[in-house]
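Ligand-bound model needed. zinc ion.
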Amino acid sequence: MADYHVLDLYFRGYPAAIAACAIPHERGVILVESGPGSTLPALACGLERLGYRLEDVTDVLLTHIHLDHAGAAGALARRGARIHVHPVGAPHMVNPERLLKSARRLYQDEMDLLWGYFLPVPEEQVVVPEDGKPFTLYGHTFVALDTPGHASHHYAYLWNGEVLFTGDVAGVRLPGARHVRLPTPPPEFHLETWRASVRKLLDASARQWVLTHFGPVDDPEWHGQRLLAVLDDLEALLEDLMPREPDVETLTQALLEWTWKIGQEDGLTREQHEQYELVNPTWMSALGVQRYWRKFRAQPEGS
Ligand SMILES: [Zn+2]
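Prediction:
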């Protein structure tokens, strides 16, 4: 079967943090994820090694619109690419003001340094695939799978029935590690829908999953079951912790201890643990679980 290429975008200079995948075809190249605006030069380098320029990107399939996945989509649209995106995310690619404002609240002074430019995508270049309905681009067949839980605007893409590009709904797993971590950012982390989405990924029966953070997973059944177990474990932790209404610093600390405990069980070195933190900072996950708990799980006073 046709091949795809994992492009390392060397986010902040680090290898294996953010990937984009390139699928060559007779008229150019399809990308899964654009990466952030800040890594556009690294994306150009990766494509050049395959014999392509940014102008040769015909289509970008975004798993979701978080800046580390979609930030450079507008820059690629300017060079002619069509941008495929979940219906909930599509309006924010055309008018990114609200998305950028809430990102700036989170990242503050580091926003531009981390993520670079985010250009809007012209509406006529936005394509919204339908959940579960196959579509073909230059001989390659894709099926977008609606997979909320990490974000409400999340698609995973099944390619030619065999390879599943999972975005963030399959979590984070660094090369060479048998350890899966959950990115649970605000504002849309939702435990129950995430569980259902993992089952949907498993039901697609792909022989390989490809994570944006980072790269191919050749044991998708193990990985999926592990994800479900980690979701259960997180829920148990929260049920114990959240009734005491910890502040966000206390919650971050508790989550850090929890991830490090699982990391050690999985044989992670301290250095690998830090690498996971770079890709998936725990302070951000703490904000996400806090919001989820307050919105969906906390009992109103007196009940
Ligand atoms: Zn994300």
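The domain at 5-224 is CATH 3.60.15.10 (Metallo-beta-lactamase; Chain A).
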